[in-house]
UniProtKB/TrEMBL annotation:
This is enoyl-CoA hydratase. Pfam families: ECH_1 (PF00378). It comes from Denitrobaculum tricleocarpae. The keyword Cell membrane does not apply. Keywords: Fatty acid metabolism, Lipid metabolism, Lyase. The keyword tRNA-binding does not apply. It catalyses: a 4-saturated-(3S)-3-hydroxyacyl-CoA = a (3E)-enoyl-CoA + H2O; a (3S)-3-hydroxyacyl-CoA = a (2E)-enoyl-CoA + H2O. Belongs to the enoyl-CoA hydratase/isomerase family. The lineage of its organism: Bacteria, Pseudomonadati, Pseudomonadota, Alphaproteobacteria, Rhodospirillales. InterPro entries: ClpP/crotonase-like_dom_sf, Enoyl-CoA_hyd/isom_CS, Enoyl-CoA_hydra/iso, Enoyl-CoA_hydra_C.
Amino acid sequence: MAYENILVETRGNVGLITLNRPKAMNALCAALIDELSDALDGFEKDAGIRCIVLTGSEKAFAAGADIKEMKSKDFMDVYGEDFITHDWERVTWTRKPVIAAVAGYALGGGCEMAMMCDFIIAAENAKFGQPEITIGTIPGSGGTQRLTRFVGKSKAMEMCLTGRMMDAAEAERSGLVSRVVPVEDLLEDAMKTAEKIAGLSLPSVMMAKEAVNRAYETTLAEGVKFERRLFHSSFATQDQKEGMAAFAEKRPANWKHR
Ligand code: CAA
């Protein structure tokens, strides 16, 4: 597939996807979503890739769904095709870790897409928001649900009801982002973090991701049980034997990713 709205590259064991619609603040049009799904499929299938970074430009991670593309749709258009479709959630079912590196605006569907990633590293100029209320609608790709889980009801409600943006410092204080870094360091920092993850055992990384995500979908007791079963499963991997042997022998582990 030829990409017109994203840039895709491989750096070592890390796959990098850059949203690239500079004239539209990286607004998420249908073609971009198709391309993103295709790129994620490719990285999932590529055994050499063990972590993925999703980023935008210094001005915008993404300013939301493409308003111009959807403005004339009517109820049956959106209900009929179940807009925003399944593909918008493609990031959430990526089994390898996906880091969002966010600079500038992450609004509406852009904020929602960042929250679908496994964690967010933000540049100091990042601004997060769900401004859909200001254009006569509401978030449609999980914003009311994920933002509420990440920052709590009061802030999520205020943001969804007023469209107020949250800056990077507030986003870090509220637990929406894992870290804030200077704009010029964002990509390097995200890539280093991704390389660190890609340098670990892939099955352990995938199991840890699955277990943390389960915390959002189930009760504490069920989540703890799920975690324990995955922990047990890790003892069936070659990497558990290698990792613990390497620790005991005071040498670096030679991961097989199996
Ligand atoms: N869709 C389509 N085009 C967009 C866009 C969007 N979401 N956001 C920005 N653009 C376009 C602008 O129309 C403009 O295009 P033209 O040059 O052709 O006029 C270009 O990008 C640059 O934008 P601005 O001139 O507005 O730049 P700014 O610096 O003055 O403002 C901004 C930046 C605050 C991000 C502003 O563009 C803005 O408010 N954008 C819309 C944000 C929004 O409402 N997002 C929610 C969308 S709905 C949604 O996402 C639903 C969902 O839940 C999935």
